[in-house]
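Lecture notes, unit on protein representations.

Consider one protein chain, 186 amino acids long.
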Amino acid sequence: MVRMTAVVVCAAVASLVACSVETAESDRPSATAAPSSAGSSAGDQCAALLDDDALTALGWAVDSTAEEHAGRCERRAGGSGAVTVVTRAVTGKGPDAARDALDAQCEELRSGGGYVDQPVAWLDPESDASCFTSLADTRTGVAELYLVNTMDELIQVRVEALTPVAPERVQEAMSNVAAAASDLAS
């Protein structure tokens, strides 16, 4: 009888611990690849951020799907390149914490030696809280866009072009992704 009671108590405790761990895991904020949006998974958010328009704007073949990996949303286009989106919750204090985080990222881009456009005039929707660095003169390499969305999350959009891409195509693709990030936040 004592053994039977001990087994039942152990099973009940194990069940409660498992439930509380599961609840704690689901309540814990995570580093998602897309802005927070109630009722959608990171994979759904990733697919919404990097839809076919993101690749076709770059002139790339749509031969893959967006994948969430290690807190990043990434979509590859064969040998042409990749588009990556990272969303970071801003943990600083004060009313300008998101802007301060953006300015730090923009300054890091400047330290790389390239020209940094801040704010980004071509961005739609226009955002004063943004900065951009373009591809190299060869129209290959890495272009990056940072912006703060309406939820004060810092969004990084990165285009890695392995084949030449016209600057206006990069801008169109990044603008599409930025608009999708804004849409998911509302």
